[in-house]
Amino acid sequence: MKTKTAMITIAGRPNVGKSTLANALVGEKIAIVSHKPQTTRNRICAIVDRGDTQLVFIDTPGFHRPRTKLGDYMVNVVNQSVADVDAVILLVEPIANVGPQEQELIEKIREAKVPAILVINKIDTVEKETLLPVIAAYKDLLDFTDVIPISAKWHDGLDSLMQVCEGFAQEGPFMFPEGISTDMPEKQVMAEIIREKLLWNLEKEIPHGTAVEITKFSERDDGIIDLDAKNSKGEPLVQMQLDIPEHVLKHYQELLTIDQYPPCYQIIPSLTKLTIHSWMSALQTERLSQKTEAIEERVRQCNGDWENAYFVTLARNFGFGINGEAFEQWALNLPLRAVDHHRDDLFQIEAIFMGQAGLLELNTIPERYQKDALNDGYFARLRNEYLYLSHKFSMQPMDYKLWQFLRLRPQNFPHIRISQLANLYYNRRASLSQLLEATTVKEAKKVLSTSVTEYWETHYTFGSTSVKNEKHISPFSLNLLIINTVVPILFAYGRHRGEEKFCDRAFDFLEELKAENNHIVRMWQQCGLEVENAGDSQALIQLKKEYCDRKECLRCRIGYEYLKR
Known about the structure:
Elements: E1 4-11, H1 18-26, E2 44-50, E3 53-59, H2 69-82, E4 87-92, H3 100-112, E5 116-120, H4 131-139, E6 146-149, H5 158-166, E7 170-171, H6 186-201, E8 212-219, E9 225-231, E10 236-237, H7 246-257, H8 273-301, H9 306-318, H10 324-332, H11 336-340, H12 346-356, H13 367-376, H14 378-393, H15 414-426, H16 432-436, H17 441-448, E11 459-461, E12 464-465, H18 475-497, H19 500-512, H20 519-526, H21 534-548, H22 557-564
Helix pairs in contact: 7-22, 8-9, 8-18, 8-21, 9-10, 9-18, 12-14, 12-15, 17-18, 18-19
């Protein structure tokens, strides 16, 4: 039987999911993963045998701007891995913006003249419709052999990726013996697994640059492996062999298999207030830190401009979930400096806002309303104004198909939210400086309070009339904007500037606001957990998404209490 082989590099920025993908392709753990960047430091070969074809995937460190000698080393590893291979998988996140890391990697692929596959990971975190602008953002930069959306975490799309990769295989002997999954020795694999546990469980106690070296490796007759391990300073890592108590193992299995959600519901009433309060405080801070990372990424996308990044964040949350991604793309596509030239003219602001949203094309209006839209004159005036301004400032509208209308209440239609944002911008209340001056929740709500322009008082879409309504932002929506926009921005900006007063204000706002009333909060309340304010509800959302949904009971303080009962 003739055999074929292919060597394929997996490249991308830190934390894009390269190691997760390598593990998923092999079907077992060969590369460690953590929530921190630069977890992978060396080339790791993931070997997959598919009949007469052997695919060797090279998992590389995340490509980044090095600030240390360790960083320099990892970048050199990536550079070497892109050359002399049969193909490169460029792994990216579903974000319609090509960052500097991706641009530099694309340039290195082009220089190496090697075929490349664009693989969009984490598609489980976004709506499928949002992938189109991601593809569009990359398609002009490199002639990719194929574009494949996947979720490495949930093994979605991996079969398609394998089939494409097999197409690069060339006739020749296998590079590695059949049946092995990696070229790393067992000793190295175990050292990496120990390092992974350190990263996950001792993130505050040890530096991220730690290393583990195994100096002695032997297997006992009872199947237990003895190790002598050292850290990066040459200090021994004390080895302990612990027997798992039967009741702990039993309770752990219960947490993994109980159908009722959450699986730890039985123990909630018996927990002390101190246990609950301390865990809720930690979860609240953890959630704010994650939102801070998202805001910092927007700041980078806006070239360090915090004012623009704030507007993008505000716009995203005006989407109230369903249209969040579309609003973020819309805001990133807005040339705010150009808008500033016309900020004294509300009509021109609305023309730019609606036009950049792609909503001033006749085919975006339902056919039954098109005639009325043309007759009422406002649509045509807005469109003509936008055509003039778009030519003046070289603006290109986004794809209107990104907007969702299904299952939306009319007051949440993009036209309404965009008109409210236009009014907010016109009244000089959409800037970060205005928000920073608000020292109370009441003042913050006053800053963000807005309504629609006159036309939209009697319309929800172009051409379709409605009962007159000023369509103010509702108190419920204002609360959500404070929780999801104001609080994270204050916290992120406070950390950025090193000014604790903004961080403290963020926590004060959360304590002052009422708790959110959603299914997650109600579920925990039914278990006997008291929810007093928005800080508590945010903590519970974090608990469900980051611990319960991921079965991370061993990292959860409630899970810990359940295990030891």
